[in-house]
Write a structure and sequence with these properties.
binds adenosine-5'-diphosphate; 6-stranded mixed sheet; binds magnesium ion; Rossmann fold; ABC transporter involved in vitamin B12 uptake, BtuC; 23 helices
Length: about 600
Protein backbone atom coordinates (compact mmCIF):
# COMPACT_ATOMS: atom_id res chain seq x y z
CA UNK A 1 0.00 0.00 0.00
CA UNK A 2 1.25 3.46 -0.84
CA UNK A 3 2.25 5.76 1.97
CA UNK A 4 -0.78 8.00 2.51
CA UNK A 5 -0.30 10.66 5.15
CA UNK A 6 -3.41 12.38 6.45
CA UNK A 7 -4.08 15.98 5.50
CA UNK A 8 -3.28 17.02 9.03
CA UNK A 9 0.12 15.32 8.82
CA UNK A 10 0.77 17.15 5.56
CA UNK A 11 -0.17 20.46 7.16
CA UNK A 12 2.18 19.82 10.07
CA UNK A 13 4.90 18.85 7.61
CA UNK A 14 4.36 22.05 5.64
CA UNK A 15 4.63 24.15 8.80
CA UNK A 16 7.85 22.38 9.85
CA UNK A 17 9.28 22.93 6.37
CA UNK A 18 8.32 26.60 6.51
CA UNK A 19 10.02 26.90 9.89
CA UNK A 20 13.24 25.37 8.57
CA UNK A 21 13.47 27.26 5.28
CA UNK A 22 15.35 30.34 6.57
CA UNK A 23 17.91 28.02 8.19
CA UNK A 24 18.68 26.42 4.86
CA UNK A 25 21.23 27.97 2.52
CA UNK A 26 18.52 29.45 0.27
CA UNK A 27 19.42 32.60 -1.66
CA UNK A 28 18.17 35.79 -0.05
CA UNK A 29 15.96 36.34 -3.05
CA UNK A 30 13.77 33.39 -2.08
CA UNK A 31 13.49 34.43 1.52
CA UNK A 32 12.40 37.89 0.43
CA UNK A 33 9.84 36.32 -1.89
CA UNK A 34 8.52 34.14 0.92
CA UNK A 35 8.26 37.16 3.21
CA UNK A 36 6.26 38.98 0.58
CA UNK A 37 4.04 35.95 0.00
CA UNK A 38 3.31 35.63 3.72
CA UNK A 39 2.49 39.32 4.01
CA UNK A 40 0.22 39.22 0.99
CA UNK A 41 -1.48 35.97 1.96
CA UNK A 42 -2.44 37.49 5.30
CA UNK A 43 -4.37 40.26 3.56
CA UNK A 44 -5.83 37.86 0.98
CA UNK A 45 -7.01 35.59 3.78
CA UNK A 46 -9.36 38.36 4.85
CA UNK A 47 -10.88 38.39 1.38
CA UNK A 48 -11.21 34.61 1.38
CA UNK A 49 -13.45 34.96 4.41
CA UNK A 50 -15.24 38.13 3.34
CA UNK A 51 -15.68 37.56 -0.38
CA UNK A 52 -15.17 33.85 -0.88
CA UNK A 53 -17.13 32.54 2.06
CA UNK A 54 -19.36 35.50 2.89
CA UNK A 55 -20.05 36.64 -0.66
CA UNK A 56 -19.23 40.30 0.10
CA UNK A 57 -16.95 41.73 -2.56
CA UNK A 58 -14.46 44.30 -1.33
CA UNK A 59 -11.96 46.32 -3.34
CA UNK A 60 -10.90 48.09 -0.15
CA UNK A 61 -8.56 45.51 1.34
CA UNK A 62 -5.41 47.38 0.23
CA UNK A 63 -6.70 50.52 1.94
CA UNK A 64 -6.99 48.62 5.22
CA UNK A 65 -3.43 47.33 4.74
CA UNK A 66 -2.47 50.99 4.32
CA UNK A 67 -4.30 51.95 7.49
CA UNK A 68 -2.29 49.38 9.42
CA UNK A 69 1.00 50.42 7.85
CA UNK A 70 0.51 54.18 8.18
CA UNK A 71 -0.78 53.99 11.76
CA UNK A 72 2.37 52.23 12.88
CA UNK A 73 4.64 54.36 10.68
CA UNK A 74 3.21 57.59 12.06
CA UNK A 75 3.23 56.56 15.70
CA UNK A 76 6.74 55.11 15.64
CA UNK A 77 8.41 57.88 13.62
CA UNK A 78 6.64 60.94 15.00
CA UNK A 79 5.91 59.89 18.56
CA UNK A 80 8.50 57.22 19.23
CA UNK A 81 5.91 54.63 20.23
CA UNK A 82 7.16 51.05 20.44
CA UNK A 83 6.19 48.96 17.37
CA UNK A 84 4.66 46.34 19.65
CA UNK A 85 2.25 48.96 20.97
CA UNK A 86 1.49 50.28 17.52
CA UNK A 87 0.44 46.75 16.61
CA UNK A 88 -2.64 47.30 18.76
CA UNK A 89 -3.10 50.83 17.46
CA UNK A 90 -2.96 49.65 13.83
CA UNK A 91 -5.57 47.01 14.48
CA UNK A 92 -7.75 49.41 16.48
CA UNK A 93 -7.79 52.07 13.75
CA UNK A 94 -8.62 49.46 11.11
CA UNK A 95 -11.42 48.06 13.28
CA UNK A 96 -12.87 51.53 13.78
CA UNK A 97 -12.74 52.29 10.06
CA UNK A 98 -14.26 48.91 9.18
CA UNK A 99 -17.05 49.26 11.74
CA UNK A 100 -18.01 52.66 10.39
CA UNK A 101 -17.79 51.63 6.76
CA UNK A 102 -19.50 48.28 7.37
CA UNK A 103 -22.32 49.80 9.35
CA UNK A 104 -22.94 52.31 6.57
CA UNK A 105 -22.75 49.95 3.62
CA UNK A 106 -23.39 46.32 4.55
CA UNK A 107 -27.16 46.72 4.66
CA UNK A 108 -27.06 47.63 1.01
CA UNK A 109 -27.35 44.80 -1.46
CA UNK A 110 -26.00 44.12 -4.91
CA UNK A 111 -23.33 46.40 -6.30
CA UNK A 112 -23.47 49.04 -3.56
CA UNK A 113 -20.95 47.34 -1.32
CA UNK A 114 -18.25 46.88 -4.00
CA UNK A 115 -18.79 50.48 -5.06
CA UNK A 116 -18.59 51.72 -1.49
CA UNK A 117 -15.34 49.82 -0.95
CA UNK A 118 -13.94 51.38 -4.13
CA UNK A 119 -14.87 54.82 -2.82
CA UNK A 120 -13.20 53.97 0.48
CA UNK A 121 -10.07 52.79 -1.33
CA UNK A 122 -9.89 55.98 -3.37
CA UNK A 123 -10.45 58.22 -0.35
CA UNK A 124 -7.83 56.40 1.72
CA UNK A 125 -5.31 56.63 -1.12
CA UNK A 126 -6.02 60.33 -1.57
CA UNK A 127 -5.51 60.98 2.13
CA UNK A 128 -2.24 59.03 2.24
CA UNK A 129 -0.99 61.02 -0.72
CA UNK A 130 -2.10 64.47 0.37
CA UNK A 131 -2.01 64.79 4.13
CA UNK A 132 1.07 66.67 5.28
CA UNK A 133 1.51 64.63 8.46
CA UNK A 134 1.60 61.43 6.39
CA UNK A 135 4.39 62.75 4.21
CA UNK A 136 2.25 63.09 1.08
CA UNK A 137 3.44 60.98 -1.86
CA UNK A 138 6.94 60.68 -0.40
CA UNK A 139 5.53 58.86 2.59
CA UNK A 140 7.21 58.31 5.93
CA UNK A 141 10.83 57.23 6.24
CA UNK A 142 12.93 55.84 9.03
CA UNK A 143 10.44 53.41 10.55
CA UNK A 144 12.23 51.46 13.31
CA UNK A 145 12.65 47.69 12.92
CA UNK A 146 10.79 45.28 15.14
CA UNK A 147 12.84 43.87 17.96
CA UNK A 148 12.32 40.64 19.78
CA UNK A 149 14.06 39.86 23.08
CA UNK A 150 16.44 42.73 22.45
CA UNK A 151 17.34 41.53 18.94
CA UNK A 152 16.45 43.83 16.07
CA UNK A 153 14.76 42.09 13.19
CA UNK A 154 16.46 44.02 10.42
CA UNK A 155 16.96 41.44 7.70
CA UNK A 156 14.52 39.38 5.73
CA UNK A 157 15.51 36.13 7.35
CA UNK A 158 14.63 37.28 10.85
CA UNK A 159 11.42 39.01 9.74
CA UNK A 160 10.35 35.80 8.09
CA UNK A 161 9.30 34.38 11.45
CA UNK A 162 6.90 37.09 12.65
CA UNK A 163 5.39 37.24 9.16
CA UNK A 164 4.75 33.53 8.82
CA UNK A 165 3.72 33.10 12.45
CA UNK A 166 0.98 35.69 12.02
CA UNK A 167 -0.07 34.38 8.61
CA UNK A 168 -0.32 30.79 9.78
CA UNK A 169 -2.06 31.73 13.03
CA UNK A 170 -4.61 33.69 11.02
CA UNK A 171 -5.09 30.73 8.68
CA UNK A 172 -5.54 28.38 11.64
CA UNK A 173 -8.08 30.79 13.11
CA UNK A 174 -10.08 30.95 9.89
CA UNK A 175 -10.05 27.16 9.44
CA UNK A 176 -11.34 26.83 13.01
CA UNK A 177 -13.90 29.55 12.50
CA UNK A 178 -15.40 27.95 9.41
CA UNK A 179 -15.88 24.75 11.38
CA UNK A 180 -18.03 26.22 14.15
CA UNK A 181 -21.35 27.76 15.14
CA UNK A 182 -20.46 31.28 13.93
CA UNK A 183 -18.75 29.71 10.91
CA UNK A 184 -21.97 28.08 9.78
CA UNK A 185 -23.74 31.42 10.17
CA UNK A 186 -21.03 33.07 8.06
CA UNK A 187 -21.31 30.40 5.39
CA UNK A 188 -25.02 31.14 5.17
CA UNK A 189 -24.38 34.79 4.25
CA UNK A 190 -23.75 33.95 0.62
CA UNK A 191 -27.18 33.11 -0.72
CA UNK A 192 -29.03 31.81 2.32
CA UNK A 193 -29.69 34.84 4.52
CA UNK A 194 -33.49 34.39 4.52
CA UNK A 195 -33.09 30.87 5.85
CA UNK A 196 -30.40 31.89 8.34
CA UNK A 197 -32.58 34.69 9.73
CA UNK A 198 -35.44 32.21 10.07
CA UNK A 199 -33.07 30.10 12.21
CA UNK A 200 -32.40 33.12 14.41
CA UNK A 201 -29.03 34.13 12.90
CA UNK A 202 -28.35 37.91 13.00
CA UNK A 203 -26.93 38.02 9.48
CA UNK A 204 -26.13 41.73 9.45
CA UNK A 205 -23.99 41.38 12.56
CA UNK A 206 -22.07 38.52 11.00
CA UNK A 207 -21.51 40.57 7.86
CA UNK A 208 -20.05 43.40 9.90
CA UNK A 209 -17.99 40.90 11.90
CA UNK A 210 -16.29 39.36 8.86
CA UNK A 211 -15.79 42.79 7.34
CA UNK A 212 -13.98 43.83 10.53
CA UNK A 213 -12.03 40.57 10.70
CA UNK A 214 -10.86 41.00 7.10
CA UNK A 215 -9.73 44.53 7.99
CA UNK A 216 -7.84 43.19 11.03
CA UNK A 217 -5.92 40.73 8.85
CA UNK A 218 -5.17 43.55 6.42
CA UNK A 219 -3.98 45.81 9.23
CA UNK A 220 -1.69 43.10 10.59
CA UNK A 221 -0.24 42.69 7.12
CA UNK A 222 0.23 46.46 6.86
CA UNK A 223 1.85 46.68 10.27
CA UNK A 224 4.34 43.97 9.34
CA UNK A 225 4.88 45.58 5.95
CA UNK A 226 5.78 48.95 7.52
CA UNK A 227 8.46 47.37 9.70
CA UNK A 228 9.66 45.15 6.88
CA UNK A 229 10.12 47.97 4.34
CA UNK A 230 10.96 50.52 7.06
CA UNK A 231 9.30 53.12 4.90
CA UNK A 232 5.75 53.62 3.66
CA UNK A 233 4.30 55.55 0.75
CA UNK A 234 0.83 55.40 -0.77
CA UNK A 235 1.57 53.34 -3.87
CA UNK A 236 1.30 49.78 -2.41
CA UNK A 237 -2.10 50.67 -0.96
CA UNK A 238 -3.78 52.05 -4.06
CA UNK A 239 -6.76 50.74 -5.97
CA UNK A 240 -4.63 48.53 -8.22
CA UNK A 241 -3.58 46.58 -5.11
CA UNK A 242 -7.19 46.37 -3.93
CA UNK A 243 -7.95 44.70 -7.24
CA UNK A 244 -4.85 42.54 -7.09
CA UNK A 245 -5.76 41.14 -3.66
CA UNK A 246 -9.16 40.17 -5.01
CA UNK A 247 -7.51 38.63 -8.03
CA UNK A 248 -5.23 36.55 -5.82
CA UNK A 249 -8.22 35.34 -3.82
CA UNK A 250 -10.05 34.31 -6.98
CA UNK A 251 -6.99 32.76 -8.59
CA UNK A 252 -6.15 30.81 -5.44
CA UNK A 253 -9.69 29.60 -4.95
CA UNK A 254 -12.08 31.98 -3.35
CA UNK A 255 -13.56 30.57 -0.16
CA UNK A 256 -10.54 28.35 0.53
CA UNK A 257 -7.97 29.13 3.20
CA UNK A 258 -5.28 27.35 1.19
CA UNK A 259 -6.28 29.49 -1.78
CA UNK A 260 -5.03 32.65 -0.04
CA UNK A 261 -1.52 31.23 0.06
CA UNK A 262 -1.56 29.62 -3.36
CA UNK A 263 -3.04 32.76 -4.94
CA UNK A 264 -0.57 35.08 -3.23
CA UNK A 265 2.37 32.86 -4.20
CA UNK A 266 1.24 32.41 -7.80
CA UNK A 267 0.77 36.13 -8.40
CA UNK A 268 3.96 37.17 -6.61
CA UNK A 269 6.11 34.69 -8.49
CA UNK A 270 4.46 35.34 -11.82
CA UNK A 271 4.88 39.08 -11.34
CA UNK A 272 8.54 38.64 -10.60
CA UNK A 273 9.14 36.39 -13.62
CA UNK A 274 7.24 38.68 -15.94
CA UNK A 275 9.38 41.61 -14.87
CA UNK A 276 12.41 39.61 -15.97
CA UNK A 277 11.04 38.00 -19.11
CA UNK A 278 8.85 40.61 -20.69
CA UNK A 279 11.41 43.38 -21.19
CA UNK A 280 13.80 40.93 -22.83
CA UNK A 281 11.01 39.52 -24.97
CA UNK A 282 9.43 42.77 -25.97
CA UNK A 283 12.41 45.00 -25.60
CA UNK A 284 10.43 47.60 -23.70
CA UNK A 285 10.71 48.72 -20.13
CA UNK A 286 6.96 49.35 -19.83
CA UNK A 287 4.56 47.50 -17.61
CA UNK A 288 3.40 44.93 -20.13
CA UNK A 289 2.81 42.52 -17.26
CA UNK A 290 -0.54 44.24 -16.71
CA UNK A 291 -1.63 42.92 -20.09
CA UNK A 292 -0.42 39.42 -19.32
CA UNK A 293 -2.21 39.55 -15.98
CA UNK A 294 -5.41 40.61 -17.67
CA UNK A 295 -5.15 37.63 -19.99
CA UNK A 296 -4.44 35.27 -17.10
CA UNK A 297 -7.47 36.55 -15.19
CA UNK A 298 -9.78 36.03 -18.14
CA UNK A 299 -8.35 32.57 -18.85
CA UNK A 300 -8.78 31.60 -15.19
CA UNK A 301 -12.37 32.78 -15.01
CA UNK A 302 -13.12 30.91 -18.19
CA UNK A 303 -11.32 27.62 -17.61
CA UNK A 304 -10.87 27.24 -13.85
CA UNK A 305 -13.42 29.43 -12.10
CA UNK A 306 -12.87 27.52 -8.86
CA UNK A 307 -9.23 28.62 -8.73
CA UNK A 308 -5.96 26.78 -8.15
CA UNK A 309 -6.51 25.44 -4.64
CA UNK A 310 -9.31 22.98 -5.50
CA UNK A 311 -7.06 21.48 -8.19
CA UNK A 312 -4.30 21.00 -5.63
CA UNK A 313 -6.66 19.81 -2.91
CA UNK A 314 -8.01 17.12 -5.21
CA UNK A 315 -4.54 15.54 -5.11
CA UNK A 316 -4.35 15.71 -1.33
CA UNK A 317 -5.89 13.14 0.97
CA UNK A 318 -9.49 14.00 1.85
CA UNK A 319 -9.96 16.31 4.81
CA UNK A 320 -11.35 14.11 7.53
CA UNK A 321 -12.24 15.92 10.69
CA UNK A 322 -12.89 13.65 13.61
CA UNK A 323 -16.56 14.00 14.50
CA UNK A 324 -16.38 12.73 18.04
CA UNK A 325 -19.77 13.39 19.52
CA UNK A 326 -19.56 10.90 22.35
CA UNK A 327 -20.01 12.33 25.79
CA UNK A 328 -21.53 15.54 24.49
CA UNK A 329 -23.61 17.37 27.08
CA UNK A 330 -27.22 17.71 25.99
CA UNK A 331 -27.94 21.01 24.28
CA UNK A 332 -30.08 23.40 26.31
CA UNK A 333 -33.75 23.49 25.34
CA UNK A 334 -34.77 26.68 23.60
CA UNK A 335 -36.66 28.59 26.27
CA UNK A 336 -39.22 29.85 23.76
CA UNK A 337 -41.66 32.35 25.26
CA UNK A 338 -44.40 30.86 23.07
CA UNK A 339 -44.12 27.52 24.79
CA UNK A 340 -45.62 28.91 28.01
CA UNK A 341 -49.23 30.01 28.67
CA UNK A 342 -52.62 28.80 27.54
CA UNK A 343 -55.10 29.71 24.80
CA UNK A 344 -54.47 29.23 21.09
CA UNK A 345 -50.80 29.26 20.22
CA UNK A 346 -51.22 31.01 16.90
CA UNK A 347 -54.09 33.34 16.17
CA UNK A 348 -54.33 34.85 12.70
CA UNK A 349 -56.91 37.61 12.13
CA UNK A 350 -57.79 38.96 8.69
CA UNK A 351 -54.23 38.81 7.48
CA UNK A 352 -53.65 40.35 4.07
CA UNK A 353 -50.89 40.63 1.51
CA UNK A 354 -50.96 42.53 -1.74
CA UNK A 355 -48.30 42.35 -4.43
CA UNK A 356 -49.16 45.42 -6.49
CA UNK A 357 -52.64 44.71 -7.85
CA UNK A 358 -52.60 41.03 -6.83
CA UNK A 359 -54.16 40.15 -3.48
CA UNK A 360 -52.18 37.02 -2.66
CA UNK A 361 -53.67 36.66 0.83
CA UNK A 362 -57.09 38.22 1.30
CA UNK A 363 -58.16 38.74 4.92
CA UNK A 364 -57.50 35.18 6.04
CA UNK A 365 -58.20 34.12 9.63
CA UNK A 366 -57.52 30.87 11.47
CA UNK A 367 -55.86 29.60 14.60
CA UNK A 368 -53.62 26.76 15.70
CA UNK A 369 -54.09 25.28 19.16
CA UNK A 370 -51.43 23.82 21.38
CA UNK A 371 -50.53 20.29 20.39
CA UNK A 372 -52.64 20.56 17.26
CA UNK A 373 -51.80 19.83 13.63
CA UNK A 374 -53.58 22.16 11.27
CA UNK A 375 -53.44 21.67 7.51
CA UNK A 376 -53.41 24.56 5.08
CA UNK A 377 -54.44 23.33 1.66
CA UNK A 378 -55.52 24.78 -1.64
CA UNK A 379 -54.61 24.80 -5.32
CA UNK A 380 -51.33 26.18 -6.58
CA UNK A 381 -51.15 29.93 -6.22
CA UNK A 382 -53.80 30.00 -3.48
CA UNK A 383 -51.53 31.98 -1.19
CA UNK A 384 -50.35 29.28 1.20
CA UNK A 385 -46.62 29.96 0.99
CA UNK A 386 -47.26 33.69 1.17
CA UNK A 387 -49.27 33.08 4.35
CA UNK A 388 -46.27 31.19 5.78
CA UNK A 389 -44.01 34.10 4.89
CA UNK A 390 -46.36 36.53 6.66
CA UNK A 391 -46.48 34.38 9.79
CA UNK A 392 -42.70 34.05 9.96
CA UNK A 393 -41.72 37.64 9.19
CA UNK A 394 -40.17 36.84 5.81
CA UNK A 395 -42.81 39.17 4.35
CA UNK A 396 -44.66 41.96 6.12
CA UNK A 397 -48.45 41.91 6.02
CA UNK A 398 -50.41 44.69 4.32
CA UNK A 399 -53.09 44.31 7.01
CA UNK A 400 -54.42 42.12 9.79
CA UNK A 401 -52.98 40.72 12.99
CA UNK A 402 -50.91 37.70 13.97
CA UNK A 403 -50.64 36.70 17.60
CA UNK A 404 -48.38 34.07 19.08
CA UNK A 405 -49.41 33.01 22.59
CA UNK A 406 -51.35 36.27 22.81
CA UNK A 407 -48.50 38.49 21.67
CA UNK A 408 -48.55 40.45 18.41
CA UNK A 409 -45.83 39.19 16.08
CA UNK A 410 -46.78 40.77 12.76
CA UNK A 411 -44.17 43.42 12.13
CA UNK A 412 -41.45 41.48 13.95
CA UNK A 413 -38.39 40.31 12.01
CA UNK A 414 -38.16 36.64 11.13
CA UNK A 415 -35.25 36.37 13.54
CA UNK A 416 -37.35 37.75 16.40
CA UNK A 417 -40.20 35.37 15.55
CA UNK A 418 -37.76 32.44 15.52
CA UNK A 419 -36.57 33.49 18.97
CA UNK A 420 -40.18 33.31 20.20
CA UNK A 421 -40.33 29.64 19.23
CA UNK A 422 -41.54 29.46 15.62
CA UNK A 423 -39.61 27.46 13.06
CA UNK A 424 -40.27 26.54 9.48
CA UNK A 425 -39.22 24.79 6.32
CA UNK A 426 -39.31 26.35 2.87
CA UNK A 427 -41.22 25.16 -0.17
CA UNK A 428 -38.09 25.78 -2.23
CA UNK A 429 -35.31 24.20 -0.19
CA UNK A 430 -32.90 26.71 1.30
CA UNK A 431 -29.59 25.32 2.43
CA UNK A 432 -25.83 25.62 2.14
CA UNK A 433 -25.16 23.02 -0.56
CA UNK A 434 -21.41 22.66 0.04
CA UNK A 435 -21.84 22.04 3.75
CA UNK A 436 -22.63 18.59 5.16
CA UNK A 437 -26.16 17.59 6.06
CA UNK A 438 -25.13 17.46 9.72
CA UNK A 439 -23.77 21.01 9.64
CA UNK A 440 -26.82 22.31 7.78
CA UNK A 441 -29.00 20.87 10.51
CA UNK A 442 -26.69 22.21 13.23
CA UNK A 443 -27.33 25.72 11.90
CA UNK A 444 -30.83 25.31 13.34
CA UNK A 445 -29.27 25.22 16.81
CA UNK A 446 -28.02 28.78 16.60
CA UNK A 447 -30.45 30.10 19.20
CA UNK A 448 -29.69 27.24 21.59
CA UNK A 449 -25.98 28.02 21.75
CA UNK A 450 -23.81 31.06 22.17
CA UNK A 451 -20.23 30.55 21.00
CA UNK A 452 -18.81 33.61 19.27
CA UNK A 453 -16.16 34.25 16.64
CA UNK A 454 -13.13 34.66 18.91
CA UNK A 455 -13.88 31.51 20.88
CA UNK A 456 -14.30 29.59 17.65
CA UNK A 457 -11.05 30.88 16.15
CA UNK A 458 -9.16 29.84 19.27
CA UNK A 459 -10.91 26.45 19.28
CA UNK A 460 -12.37 27.06 22.75
CA UNK A 461 -15.84 26.10 21.55
CA UNK A 462 -15.42 22.35 21.26
CA UNK A 463 -17.70 21.29 24.13
CA UNK A 464 -20.60 23.34 22.79
CA UNK A 465 -19.81 22.24 19.25
CA UNK A 466 -19.99 18.60 20.30
CA UNK A 467 -23.38 19.24 21.88
CA UNK A 468 -24.64 20.99 18.75
CA UNK A 469 -23.48 18.24 16.43
CA UNK A 470 -24.79 15.52 18.72
CA UNK A 471 -28.20 17.20 18.79
CA UNK A 472 -28.13 17.64 15.00
CA UNK A 473 -27.33 13.94 14.74
CA UNK A 474 -30.32 13.13 16.97
CA UNK A 475 -32.66 15.19 14.82
CA UNK A 476 -31.40 13.51 11.66
CA UNK A 477 -31.84 10.15 13.31
CA UNK A 478 -35.40 11.04 14.24
CA UNK A 479 -36.20 11.81 10.62
CA UNK A 480 -34.45 8.67 9.39
CA UNK A 481 -31.47 10.38 7.80
CA UNK A 482 -28.61 9.54 10.12
CA UNK A 483 -26.78 7.66 7.36
CA UNK A 484 -26.53 10.82 5.25
CA UNK A 485 -25.11 13.09 7.96
CA UNK A 486 -21.69 13.40 6.33
CA UNK A 487 -22.90 14.03 2.77
CA UNK A 488 -22.71 17.50 1.26
CA UNK A 489 -26.31 18.69 1.35
CA UNK A 490 -26.22 19.62 -2.31
CA UNK A 491 -25.74 15.94 -3.25
CA UNK A 492 -29.04 14.81 -1.75
CA UNK A 493 -32.21 14.06 -3.68
CA UNK A 494 -34.87 16.75 -3.38
CA UNK A 495 -37.07 14.74 -1.04
CA UNK A 496 -34.13 14.19 1.29
CA UNK A 497 -33.26 17.87 1.22
CA UNK A 498 -36.80 18.60 2.37
CA UNK A 499 -36.44 16.12 5.23
CA UNK A 500 -33.14 17.78 6.13
CA UNK A 501 -35.01 21.09 6.36
CA UNK A 502 -37.44 19.52 8.81
CA UNK A 503 -34.57 18.25 10.93
CA UNK A 504 -33.05 21.75 10.87
CA UNK A 505 -36.36 23.29 11.90
CA UNK A 506 -36.70 20.75 14.72
CA UNK A 507 -33.16 21.62 15.79
CA UNK A 508 -34.46 25.04 16.86
CA UNK A 509 -36.72 23.26 19.41
CA UNK A 510 -39.83 25.15 18.30
CA UNK A 511 -43.23 25.48 19.95
CA UNK A 512 -44.79 25.98 16.52
CA UNK A 513 -43.51 24.28 13.40
CA UNK A 514 -44.57 25.41 9.92
CA UNK A 515 -43.87 22.95 7.13
CA UNK A 516 -44.39 23.95 3.50
CA UNK A 517 -45.08 20.82 1.44
CA UNK A 518 -42.86 18.52 3.51
CA UNK A 519 -43.98 15.35 1.74
CA UNK A 520 -43.37 16.58 -1.81
CA UNK A 521 -40.87 14.37 -3.56
CA UNK A 522 -41.05 11.60 -0.96
CA UNK A 523 -41.88 7.99 -1.74
CA UNK A 524 -44.89 6.35 -0.13
CA UNK A 525 -42.95 4.74 2.69
CA UNK A 526 -41.01 7.89 3.39
CA UNK A 527 -44.29 9.79 3.62
CA UNK A 528 -45.63 7.30 6.11
CA UNK A 529 -42.48 7.58 8.19
CA UNK A 530 -42.72 11.37 8.09
CA UNK A 531 -46.36 11.19 9.15
CA UNK A 532 -45.37 9.12 12.17
CA UNK A 533 -42.70 11.63 13.16
CA UNK A 534 -45.12 14.55 12.88
CA UNK A 535 -47.77 12.73 14.92
CA UNK A 536 -45.16 12.05 17.55
CA UNK A 537 -44.22 15.74 17.68
CA UNK A 538 -47.87 16.57 18.32
CA UNK A 539 -47.82 14.02 21.09
CA UNK A 540 -44.91 15.92 22.63
CA UNK A 541 -47.03 19.09 22.69
CA UNK A 542 -45.68 20.78 19.59
CA UNK A 543 -48.11 22.62 17.29
CA UNK A 544 -47.82 22.18 13.54
CA UNK A 545 -49.12 24.05 10.54
CA UNK A 546 -48.78 22.05 7.39
CA UNK A 547 -49.07 23.02 3.74
CA UNK A 548 -49.47 19.90 1.69
CA UNK A 549 -50.74 18.77 -1.67
CA UNK A 550 -51.06 15.09 -0.87
CA UNK A 551 -54.66 14.85 0.38
CA UNK A 552 -54.28 11.42 1.94
CA UNK A 553 -51.29 12.60 3.90
CA UNK A 554 -53.16 15.68 5.19
CA UNK A 555 -56.43 13.86 5.89
CA UNK A 556 -54.80 11.17 7.96
CA UNK A 557 -52.66 13.50 10.02
CA UNK A 558 -54.38 16.80 10.72
CA UNK A 559 -56.88 17.78 13.39
CA UNK A 560 -58.32 20.63 11.34
CA UNK A 561 -57.89 21.91 7.82
CA UNK A 562 -58.06 25.41 6.38
CA UNK A 563 -58.75 25.52 2.65
CA UNK A 564 -57.55 28.50 0.65
CA UNK A 565 -58.41 29.49 -2.90
CA UNK A 566 -57.33 32.66 -4.74
CA UNK A 567 -55.99 34.15 -1.54
CA UNK A 568 -59.19 33.70 0.47
CA UNK A 569 -60.22 31.17 3.06
CA UNK A 570 -62.72 28.87 1.42
CA UNK A 571 -63.70 26.82 4.45
CA UNK A 572 -62.25 25.47 7.66
CA UNK A 573 -63.18 22.20 9.29
CA UNK A 574 -62.25 18.69 10.29
CA UNK A 575 -60.77 16.45 7.60
CA UNK A 576 -64.16 14.74 7.23
CA UNK A 577 -65.98 18.04 6.78
CA UNK A 578 -63.46 19.25 4.25
CA UNK A 579 -63.62 16.00 2.32
CA UNK A 580 -67.40 16.27 2.12
CA UNK A 581 -67.45 19.90 1.00
CA UNK A 582 -68.63 20.45 -2.59
CA UNK A 583 -66.81 23.80 -2.67
CA UNK A 584 -63.48 22.11 -1.94
CA UNK A 585 -64.11 19.52 -4.63
CA UNK A 586 -64.85 22.25 -7.12
CA UNK A 587 -61.70 24.12 -6.16
CA UNK A 588 -59.58 21.02 -6.64
CA UNK A 589 -61.25 19.69 -9.78
CA UNK A 590 -59.08 20.25 -12.76
CA UNK A 591 -56.11 21.20 -10.64
CA UNK A 592 -53.66 18.74 -9.21
CA UNK A 593 -55.28 16.25 -6.91
P1 LIG B 1 -49.15 28.76 -2.97
O1 LIG B 1 -48.06 28.56 -2.00
O2 LIG B 1 -50.52 28.58 -2.38
O3 LIG B 1 -49.00 27.91 -4.19
P2 LIG B 1 -48.11 31.43 -3.16
O4 LIG B 1 -48.35 31.95 -1.81
O5 LIG B 1 -46.75 31.00 -3.49
O6 LIG B 1 -49.14 30.26 -3.49
O7 LIG B 1 -48.55 32.52 -4.23
C1 LIG B 1 -49.81 33.18 -4.19
C2 LIG B 1 -49.85 34.19 -5.29
O8 LIG B 1 -48.98 35.28 -4.99
C3 LIG B 1 -49.41 33.65 -6.64
O9 LIG B 1 -50.24 34.21 -7.62
C4 LIG B 1 -48.00 34.14 -6.75
O10 LIG B 1 -47.66 34.32 -8.11
C5 LIG B 1 -48.05 35.46 -6.02
N1 LIG B 1 -46.78 35.82 -5.39
C6 LIG B 1 -46.13 35.10 -4.46
N2 LIG B 1 -45.02 35.72 -4.05
C7 LIG B 1 -44.94 36.87 -4.78
C8 LIG B 1 -44.03 37.96 -4.81
N3 LIG B 1 -42.93 37.99 -4.03
N4 LIG B 1 -44.30 38.98 -5.67
C9 LIG B 1 -45.38 38.95 -6.46
N5 LIG B 1 -46.27 37.97 -6.45
C10 LIG B 1 -46.07 36.94 -5.63
MG1 LIG C 1 -46.49 27.32 -2.10
Amino acid sequence: MAFAPSRRALAVGAVVLLALLPQLPLPDFWITQLDAIGLTALAVLGLVLLTGVGGLTSFGQAAFVGVGAYTSALLTTRYGVSPWLTLFASVAVAVAAALLLGWLTLRMSGHYLPLATIAWGLVAYYLMGNVEALGKYDGLLGIPPLSLFGVELRDNRSLYYPIWTLALLAAWGVVNLLDSRPGRAIRALKGATTMAEAMGVPTFRYKVAIFVLAAVFAALSGWLFAHFQRTVNPSPFGMHMGIEYLFMAVLGGVGEVGGAFVGAAAVRLLEDRLQVWLPSLLGTGGSAEIVVFGAVIIAMLRFAPQGLWPMLAARLPAATRPRDRDGAAPLARHAAPAAAGSGPLLDVKAIRKQFGGLVAVNDVSFSVGRGEIVGLIGPNGAGKSTTFNLLTGVLFASGGEVRLAGRRIDGLSSRAIAALGVSRSFQHVKMIPGMTVLENVALGGHLRSGGGIVRAMLRLDRAEERSLLAEAGRQLDRIGMAALAGEPAGNLALGQQRLMEIARALMTDPALLLLDEPAAGLRHQEKQALGRVLAQLRGEGMSLLLVEHDMDFVMGLTDRIVVMEFGTRLIEGTPAEVRASPAVRAAYLGTEH
